Amino acid sequence: MKRSEINRYIREAIQFFESNHFYLPVWARWSTAEWQSKGEECDEIRQNNLGWDITDFGKGRFAEEGLTLVTIRNGNLKYDNKPYCEKIMLVREKQITPIHFHWKKMEDIINRGGGKLCIRLWKADLQEERTNEDCIVKIDGVKTRVPGGGTVCLENGQSICFEPYMYHTFWAEGGDCMVGEVSTVNDDANDNRFFEPIGRFPAIEEDCPAEYLLCTEYPEKNN
């Protein structure tokens, strides 16, 4: 991905979240220069990978397969006892997040506004292959049976709970969708099992300066 594209996608996301009355922490708007002045008071942001996460999953087709996320809060088993995570995401209309599951993380995915959020589900077997077995999930706390490979579409305000080893892929229909995630601790470096071999983070072409830093780019703290 080009840095100019990442800058634009972040600007668009800020505008989209605010239009849906969701407001980000102040550090989500800090510039690269502002980050250079930050010290140990911001250790939790750095260590727990809070902040912007713009990814094309290494495919170079962001509009078709990509995702815009902000990790708002997150624990880190190395540094603290916080057992939970919260994210806000912009899922663009017909933009697919590739099929994946988590070995450890349990998560609720919530349609916070905009279009419908459509999710296709499969249970994984012991060899981590997709199965046709029915998936038992909870939608707003209601136990729901979904055929393997079936699709659930969440309206605004609805949520679904995934346990580990539940393959899922999702996209928005009827407009861009603001999606919340509440989960146990998130570890994107070690807890994503993609069905096809792809990258979690993008390769970046530095065609212009960064307006905002991604969660993987914070400078060392200023002592």
What labels would you give this structure?
223 residues; mainly beta; eleven-stranded antiparallel sheet; 3 helices; 37% strand; globular
Question: What does this protein structure show overall?
Answer:
The chain is mostly beta strands and 223 residues long. 12% of the residues lie in helices and 37% in strands. The chain is built from three helices and eleven strands. Strands 1, 2, 3, 4, 5, 6, 7, 8, 9, 10 and 11 form an eleven-stranded antiparallel β-sheet that branches. The longest helix is centred in the N-terminal third of the chain and has 17 residues, at 3-19. It is globular.
Number of helices: 3
Query: Uncertain segments of ≥5 residues (pLDDT<50)?
Result: none
- Principal-axes geometry comes out as globular
- From N to C, what is the helix and strand string? HHHEEEEEEEEEEE
Total strands: the figure is: 11
Strand content: 35-45%
Distance between the termini: 32 Å
Biggest β-sheet strands, sense, barrel: 11 strands, antiparallel
Structural class: mainly beta
Helix proportion range = 10-25%
Average the pLDDT over all residues and give the rounded result. Answer: 95
Specify Rg, calculated over alpha carbons.
17 Å
